[in-house]
Specification:
heterodimer; A: about 240 residues; alpha/beta; Rossmann fold; 6-stranded mixed beta sheet; 9 strands; B: MetI-like fold
């Protein structure tokens, strides 16, 4: 799990096979079967409490299904070639550069390679001027950019993002969306949740729609937005128009 | 009776060699004990915060309780261990500075362990999902949490230093207050007061308090500075 995924073993598609998650006697995700294919931008949509975050955590391997299975194509239980950006990412009490170097050290990357990778990452996302700043002292938008850069530096094949812009103002949201789009353009698979319907329209190639812990639609984005099959998804999109 | 304060200042001003020897030994013993307690207590406290095993709760309570361990009892325990007929009597350590270091380490260790546990437990709550996501298991998280908790941990280390430099019971029992060999500031104060020679006692008292004050001022300053620059 500390081996960098350089020779590209195919970890995708990721398949959830009738995966459920229950806690405290409550079924929070129920019978979710989904295949996440390589190179796509999948947006998970649904109302608050529908289980979006839980589904991401389940895919990422932070929790395990209480029933059903999670299957990576390379057969591993939890592949290293993935990264996740949390809704409120935790940055370490160190400099920005040290934050980006940290997971690389965990991957066992040698110090000189690490320095190069950190420099490359900072440059890639225009964060070089912030390299020596204390990460915790940055604004919310800057912190989210650092978190996204840190995830990218781990050279994931699939990047999970949980409401990456929910706490940000429009200009910071714009920057993050551009970062996500440019990361996706490199061929990295994106799986993200959002309650921002405009953002979903801008970023989604595929949409998975959750309703009360069940996956009730999973389709390419264009037809989904043009005409959802389910009344729940229709109502959700209609909310967009009202607001 | 002479004015003890006048004597005290005269002694301090003259740089009395006996006084300097006593201060030097006190600092050496206490700082060594603090260093050893940190080497053991920081990883142990973090491990206690992260590990889940039966009896963990009891261990946590025990270390909390031991923070109030009376120094004389710590001294007695080390005395029994090191006395001629004790299990480690053959080492001939009783009434040496080494014995005093051992006793003071015993006093400081619970403070370092308990505070480290509490600091790392809070940090772990905040960090654990993120660290797991980044690829760090519990074991690898220990140095990460200690480093990220360094500012708060400093307080615990200073509390340990404060306790050890102020206590008299433990060093008196295992050190024996031998002039020029195991006499520290606190044991000297005890002795000189009992003999009615208040000059040296007051001088040492003033120095001890000045040291504590300086140390805490420095610690506070470092803490403020670190909050700005290290978090």
């Amino acid at each position: 799990m500390t081996v960098p995924p350089s020779p590209t073993p195919a970890i995708l598609p990721l398949t959830l096979d009738a995966a459920s998650y229950a806690a405290g006697g409550q079924v929070l995700l129920s019978d979710v079967s989904v295949t996440i294919t390589s190179g796509r931008r999948l947006v998970i949509m649904g109302a608050n409490g529908a289980g979006k975050t839980l589904l991401l955590r389940l895919c990422h391997g932070l929790i395990d299904p209480t029933a059903g299975r999670r299957i990576w194509a390379d057969g591993s239980a939890r592949t290293a070639a993935q990264a996740m950006v949390f809704q409120r990412p935790v940055l370490l009490r160190r400099t920005v550069a040290a934050n980006i170097a940290y997971p690389l050290a965990l991957q066992g990357m040698a110090a000189d390679q690490r320095r190069d990778m950190v420099a490359r990452t900072l440059h890639r996302f225009g964060l070089t001027p912030l390299a020596d700043r204390r990460a915790r002292r940055l604004s919310g938008g800057e912190q989210q950019r650092v978190a996204l850069a840190r995830a990218w530096a781990m050279t994931p094949h699939v990047l999970f993002l949980d409401e990456p812009t929910s706490a940000l103002d429009p200009s910071a949201t714009r920057i993050i969306e551009d970062m996500i789009a440019s990361i996706a353009a490199e061929g990295i698979t994106i799986v993200m949740t959002t309650h921002d319907l405009g953002q979903a329209r801008r970023l989604a190639e595929d949409v998975a729609f959750l309703h009360r812990g069940r996956l009730i639609e999973h389709r390419p984005a264009a037809p989904f937005f043009a005409g959802p099959h389910t009344p729940e998804a229709r109502a959700h999109l209609a909310g967009d128009l009202i607001w | 009776m002479e004015d003890p304060f006048a004597t005290a200042f005269a002694l301090m001003a003259s740089g009395d060699p006996e006084l300097r020897q006593i201060i030097g030994l006190s600092l050496r013993v206490t700082l060594t004990a603090v260093a050893i307690a940190c080497m053991i207590g920081l990883p142990l406290g973090a491990a206690l915060a992260l590990a889940r095993f039966p009896g963990r709760g009891a261990l946590v309570v025990l270390f909390n309780a031991l923070m109030g361990l009376p120094p004389v009892v710590a001294g007695l325990m080390v005395y029994l261990l090191l006395s001629r007929s004790g299990p480690m009597g053959g080492l001939g350590l009783l009434f040496t500075p080494t014995a005093m270091v051992v006793a003071q380490t015993l006093l400081i260790l619970p403070i370092v362990v308990s505070l480290t546990r509490s600091v790392t437990e809070d940090l772990w709550l905040e960090y654990h999902e993120q660290l797991r996501s980044l690829g760090a298991g519990r074991l690898r998280a220990v140095p990460t949490l200690l480093w990220d908790g360094r500012v708060s941990l400093l307080t615990g280390v200073l509390a340990g230093f404060g306790r050890a430099s102020a206590e008299v019971g433990a060093v008196l029992i295992v050190g024996g207050n031998i002039a020029g060999h195991t006499r520290t500031m606190t044991t000297a104060i005890t002795l000189e007061t009992a003999r009615g020679q208040l000059g040296l006692a007051v001088a040492l008292g003033i120095i001890l308090m000045a040291m504590t004050l300086t140390l805490n001022a420095v610690a506070w300053g470092v803490g403020q500075w670190a909050k700005e620059r290290l978090e």
